[in-house]
């Protein structure tokens, strides 16, 4: 199954992508995770991406599109993928359509996880992530079993640098301006599914699986 997850920062794309990728047995591709791992490893791409991410702006399309193209050509994407955080602009969406058309595997579903801005701010201020394995938690909605410690790898969990209030507000502004227009873009293609992302994690997963015909 070839699925894009759309939604504001903190809507729950990453949380749902991990669950769906496991259930559907397809890779989870997150451009945010790719950038963060490059930042952690001090690569040239990481240095460039950091300039934008720290301000809550988008990394330029010419950088981002090439990364996704290379990733989609890998053999593990043959049976599908969950794209999380890409596309985020109309040019990215147009390029994605071209890439997938040329591979003969067009996108099947675009799931918009709909959450109001006020929820987003609460979610992101409580989010904690594991610098070891990338697992994501929330101090009240989705806490680890042992406070402050990752369930999966035992590393101490931290707050993401771009989850401070000023950057979150900027990320939301960027989302409304540059990414929200994709909802109409995919609606016109007949691929859009909208789910209520204010539900709890399990119920959100259930509505996505129902909408894509898995349950
Ligand atoms: P990215 O990492 O993609 O960040 P984002 O889109 O801002 O999304 P988040 O990871 O913040 O949130 P999410 O929707 O995954 O929510 P999560 O599941 O963690 O990108 C980071 C940066 O990289 C961007 O700002 C940009 O600069 C750059 N970038 C990335 N892709 C790019 C692109 N294509 N083009 C250009 N630049 C790009 O959930 C959030 C919290 O809520 C968690 O604590 C979670 O536990 C909790 N939670 C989740 N679901 C629920 C629920 N249903 N109920 C209650 N709590 C929940």
Structure description:
With 215 residues, the protein is α/β, with parallel strands linked by helices. It has a single domain (2-211), classed as Rossmann fold. It is 47% helix and 14% strand. It has nine helices and seven strands. The protein has helices spanning 13-24, 31-40, 44-53, 61-72, 90-103, 117-126, 165-179, 181-188, 201-211; strands at residues 2-7, 28-30, 81-84, 109-114, 127-129, 136-138, 192-196. The chain has a five-stranded parallel beta sheet with strand order 2-3-1-4-7, with helices on both faces. Strands 5-6 form a two-stranded antiparallel ribbon. Helix 1 packs across helix 9 and helix 4 runs parallel beside helix 5 (90-103). The longest helix has 15 residues, at 165-179. The radius of gyration is 16 Å and the shape is globular. It starts with a strand and ends with a helix. 33% of the residues are buried. The model has no long low-confidence stretch (mean pLDDT 96). BIS(adenosine)-5'-pentaphosphate binds at residues 7, 9-15, 30-32, 35, 52-53, 56-59, 64, 85-86, 88, 92, 123, 126-127, 136-138, 141-142, 171, 197, 199-201, 204. BIS(adenosine)-5'-pentaphosphate is lined by residues 7, 9-15, 30-32, 35, 52-53, 56-59, 64, 85-86, 88, 92, 123, 126-127, 136-138, 141-142, 171, 197, 199-201, 204.
């Amino acid at each position: 199954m070839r699925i894009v997850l759309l939604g504001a920062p903190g809507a729950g794309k990453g949380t749902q992508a991990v669950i769906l990728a496991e259930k559907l047995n397809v890779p989870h591709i997150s451009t945010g995770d790719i950038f963060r791992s490059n930042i952690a490893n001090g690569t040239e791409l990481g240095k460039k991406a950091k300039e934008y991410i720290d301000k809550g702006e988008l990394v330029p399309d010419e950088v981002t599109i090439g990364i996704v193209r290379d990733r989609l050509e890998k053999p593990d994407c043959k049976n599908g993928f969950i794209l999380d955080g890409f596309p985020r602009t109309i040019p990215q969406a147009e390029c994605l359509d071209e890439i997938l058309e040329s591979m003969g595997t067009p996108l099947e579903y675009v799931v918009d996880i709909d959450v109001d801005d006020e929820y987003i701010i609460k979610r992101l201020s409580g989010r904690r992530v594991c610098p070891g394995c990338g697992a994501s938690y929330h101090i009240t909605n989705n806490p680890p079993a042992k406070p402050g410690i990752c369930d999966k790898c035992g590393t101490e969990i931290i707050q993401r640098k771009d989850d401070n209030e000023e950057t979150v507000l900027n990320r939301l502004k960027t989302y409304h301006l540059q990414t929200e227009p994709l909802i109409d873009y995919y609606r016109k293609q007949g691929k859009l599914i909208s789910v209520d992302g204010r539900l709890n994690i399990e119920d959100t997963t259930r509505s996505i699986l129902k909408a894509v015909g898995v349950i």
